[in-house]
Write a structure and sequence with these properties.
The protein has helices spanning 43-46, 64-91, 98-111; strands spanning 10-16, 21-29, 32-40, 55-63. With 123 residues, the chain is of the alpha+beta class. Strand 1 and strand 2 (21-29) form a beta hairpin. Helix 2 runs antiparallel to helix 3. Bound molecules: zinc ion. Residues 69, 108, 114, 116, 118 line the site of zinc ion (ZN).
Length: 123
């Protein structure tokens, strides 16, 4: 999400549903973001496949500020619930992305003129 505030207008990430892949594509367009979710039958075969080879299962355009806000709040709530140690104990392979969360918070507050409330963080 933080990349959408910079010079990388398209961001992709996938969920491995074993064997299916569900790929989210976020495309920044000014102050809005086009969201598209594609489904592929087999992630081992679709890893390098273009988005269009998948089935578009959902799409929407949302204000970047609102999207940034809800992702920021969701990530913050995960951190508050589990803490960095608890997150790592559950996820095992990866630490909580604290630096990325701090980047997103800084970029969101700096660029989105968001009038919603933001949780106070000590990190
Ligand atoms: Zn906000």
């Amino acid at each position: 999400m933080a990349g959408l505030y910079g010079h990388i207008p398209v961001q992709r990430f996938s969920f491995d549903l074993e064997p299916a892949e569900v790929r989210w594509v976020l495309q920044g367009r000014g102050s809005e973001v086009d969201l598209s979710i594609y489904r592929f039958a087999d992630m081992s075969a679709s890893f390098d496949a273009p988005d269009q080879d998948g089935t578009l299962v959902w799409g929407s355009t949302q204000p970047r500020g609102l999207l940034g806000h809800v992702i920021l709040e969701a990530a913050q709530s995960v951190l508050e619930l589990h803490g960095e140690d608890g997150y790592l104990a559950k996820w095992v392979q990866h630490s909580f992305p604290t630096a990325a969360l701090q980047d997103l918070r800084r970029l969101h507050l700096q660029h989105d003129r968001c009038a919603l409330q933001h949780a106070v963080t000590t990190s």
